[in-house]
Design a protein that fits this description.
With 140 residues, the chain is mostly helical. The chain is 61% helix and 0% strand. The longest helix has 25 residues, at 85-109. Keywords: Membrane, Transmembrane, Transmembrane helix.
Length: 140
């Protein structure tokens, strides 16, 4: 039964890869737009939710780290509320897409593809590498 689940994930990743390969940005410097400027905490949280499916453009370091701070505080608050597993799963699923979109935009600011965030799935080394990438200076 688990192999069906694994096969479904691999098949969906292959479909996403093929679709993104056809619409990939041009190569070279500034291929993701101009460098993002720093933002405040409230602006970062607002962009976290308004840029729900925005996987293009760039996110500054402050936007990314403020969004991650908000995400961690949200998870801590949800953990303290003792909500049912179904409610927690729905809330986490609701915030998973903006989490990945802001991470992709942050990697774009370092002139990397958003697909590089898949490296973080290979714990602990991949997560450490992804954290270093997200903390780098903007690169054109």
């Amino acid at each position: 039964m688990h192999w069906i689940f694994a096969f479904g994930i691999l098949a969906s990743l292959l479909v996403v890869f093929v679709i993104s390969y056809k619409s990939r940005p041009s190569q070279g410097p500034n291929r993701f737009g101009k460098t993002a400027s720093p933002v405040s905490f409230t602006t970062a949280v607002r962009r976290f939710f308004t840029g729900y499916f925005n996987f293009t453009g760039r996110a500054s370091r402050t936007e990314f780290w403020y969004a991650m701070l908000f995400y961690v505080l949200l998870l801590l608050m949800l953990g303290l509320l003792n909500l049912s597993d179904l409610v927690l799963s729905i809330l986490l699923a609701f915030t998973l897409i903006p989490f990945h979109s802001v991470a992709a935009r942050r990697l774009h600011d370092t002139n990397r593809s958003g697909w590089y965030q898949l490296v973080s799935w290979f714990m602990p080394v991949g997560t450490i590498i992804a954290l270093f990438w997200c903390n780098e200076e903007p690169y054109d």
